[in-house]
Amino acid sequence: MYDSGKVITGIVAFILFVSFPFWHNVAFGLPEGAPDLPRVEGQAHCVADLEFMKANHMDLLNTWRDEVVREGDRIYTSPIDGTKYHKSLTNECLGCHKSNEEFCQKCHDYAGVEVYCWDCHLAERRGK
Amino acid sequence: MDKGRRKFLKVAGAAAILLGSKPAVNAIASGGEEEHSTAKKRDVRYAMVIDTRICLQHEDCHDCENACHFNHNVPKIDGKKEEIKWIWRDKYENVFTDQQHDYTIERLKGKPFVTLCNHCDDPPCVRVCPTQATYQLDNGIVTMDMHRCIGCRFCMAACPYGSRSFNWSDPRPNIEKQNPDYPTRTRGVVEKCNFCVERVTIGKKPHCELACKHGAIVTGDLTKKDSAIRKLLAENQVIRRKPTLGTNPEVYYII
Q1: Domain ranges across chain A
Q2: Does B23 lie in the same domain as B55?
Q3: Which residues in chain B are closer than 8 Å to A116, comparing Cβ atoms?
Q4: What value of ipTM does the predicted structure carry?
Q5: Residue A70: CA atoms inside 13 Å, Cβ hemisphere, count?
Q6: Among chain B residues, CA nearest to A125
Q7: Cβ contact (<8 Å) for A91 and B201?
Q8: Is residue B41, in this structure, part of any structural domain at all?
């Protein structure tokens, strides 16, 4: 191979560059400042199991969205104890997680995932 | 042998013609018996009657528009190009374009008529929507899934009633007072009257009907023979907007 030194150096540099996110995390650990989300007082649990909600809230919300919009099915029955909840971001989720800025946005900023629910859904609940 | 084949072909040909004509014969045979209907068969069919005789007595009243637009967070933007409207008023000649002639009676000439999405039985907007963001429910209501709208505006081109508006900019700065019971829209989606589907499906009346203190707007289920709307339709001559286009609009006007 001609210029093998340059070619191999180039390939190694390229691989290092592409895998930057992986070896950076291994070498320096995860970034500081993982958000400390506000605890919800006075509620035993969320609409579903906590670990399920952490991992799958986006799927649950998408299912809620389709069921409400397409089928008019607005009530969710909790798999934990059968409690019935309204499938509503503004008027159910925000009832416990008071502020979308404090709850949703903090974690999404940390994870680098854009959340656009609040472009349309209102962050102000109806006055009780 | 030769004769046998000929005979076989003749019989086969005759049989094919007979079988092929069966659907046509059936159609002719049953044509006179069935009640003529332009609408699709449904278990529930929501529709609206607007008594414009009452409406025209209160030309300055905008209660239905205000109630609808407040409750659905419809922004108020001036100017024909960017305005957003779910229910609005336009003059007689513009609303009933196919009723136009030079001798319209004074009572109607240039007078404001309430108009909105007609929730057509054969809605062209649904047919053209490439993402099925606009769709029709079994009860006839034509509604939208805002999550799916990509803002292509095919539906706006398809709708012969101008019932659809496009959000050219973020609507929120133009919403005077936000109603937390309904979401706003975002830049780049189309919107229109949804027949208060969020209320009708849980047994409540649409906002415009409730807001009309003169009782000019009546909604109901057309399949129920004893409903108030059927009574109105049975007792009054009504017209619809551009019925000749074949969209089968389901908003009826008592003139």
Answers
A1: 1-31
A2: no
A3: 186
A4: 0.79
A5: 10
A6: B180
A7: no
A8: no
